[in-house]
Amino acid sequence: MRTTKRFTPTVLARFFKIGRGTGTFENYIPWHRVGRSDPSSCGRSHLQMWHGRQRELLSDGEWVGLFFAVSMKNLVDLTEQFPLSLEDGQHEMAAHRADTPPSRHPGTLEIAKRLGYKHPKTNEKGLSSEWVMTTDFILVLRTPANKLELLAVAFKPSADLKKKRTKELLNIEREYWLARGVTWLLITPELFDQRVALRLRDTMPWALGGVVPERDLSIANAVTHELQGHSLTYILEQLTARFGDDDHAKRTFWQSVWCGKIPLDLRRGWRPHLPVTLLSAAEFLSLNPIAGRRSSWI
Question: Band of the pLDDT at 3, cuts 50, 70, 90?
Fold first, then answer.
């Protein structure tokens, strides 16, 4: 049976010692992890494989948020449970760009003081240390000008926003990223259609399965546009006949959908006999709150 663990100064010191919150791509180590050695989260946790590393997600909101994020064509890297610096320091882009100019940006201690908020602490047997705040996701995106930019994303249930302390902590987090010129989004369930979230969860095994060749995505795109209005069952049968493999056909179709080549209306029901309806590129993009840069108010 898993015993209940608490965050203490000793636990935080261990996180620093083993390099939590450092690295990039498959070498990144999240500050908080889903495992027996870490205190458990309040929500339901998930482990999701993506790009050579298990992503450690502490809530259903983060799990769905990962699906929205990885469907963005300009996503370069994603780091979850990212620790915010207590003291002033270098810009976080320095981990991804060696030519990032030297600069100093305020840490959470300075920001909390400026806002008039009490900075969170953790205590243990007379010892006290400053709590290390985190941002759920940091996305590294490639801009149309072929440059890299960061996007910080937090996920919260709407009920949590009624708590004064939660609002204070989110304000510290937001100001931390604004001081660095980084857009910060607060994603709540009201910002997206729950039917879309269900379709992403249902189709995730094929969308995040073995990557299919680009030429096959183009074939699926052409076949689906030609057969728009037919049932999903019929379209998948035609793709299976073309590729000779049912699983490959499903992976090709859903990977094409997730990357936007097939702008499927994801609000459709789950039943495969329902007709396939396609949207415009702009309408399809609007289904994704992260790609659309939507954010809730604190």
Answer: very low
Structural element, H or E, at residue 54: strand 53-57
Residue burial 62-100, b: 16+ Cβ < 10 Å; e: rest = bbbbbbbbbbbeebebbbbbbbbbbeeeebbbebbeeee
pLDDT tens digits, one per residue of 65-85 = 999 999 999 999 999 999 999
Confidence of residue 127 (pLDDT cuts 50, 70, 90): confident
Asked, for residue 1, whether it belongs to a domain, the answer is no
Distances (CA, A) of 295 to 68, 125, 126, 190: 14, 40, 40, 10
264, 267, 273, 278: CA torsion to nearest 10: -30
Please choose, from the candidates 24, 20, 31, the residue with its C-alpha nearest in 3D space to the C-alpha of residue 52: 24
* Domain count within the chain: 2
Do residues 76 and 165 both lie within one domain? yes
> Half-sphere exposure (CA, 13 Å, Cβ side) for 9?
9
Q: Give domain status of residue 263, yes or no.
A: yes
In a domain, 141, yes or no: yes
Residues in the chain: 298
* Domain end (from 191, 221, 251): 191
- Domain region containing 224: 194-285
List, for residues 133-175, the tens digit of each pLDDT value.
Answer: 999 999 999 999 999 999 999 999 999 999 999 999 999 999 9
CA 118 to centroid of chain Cα atoms: 28
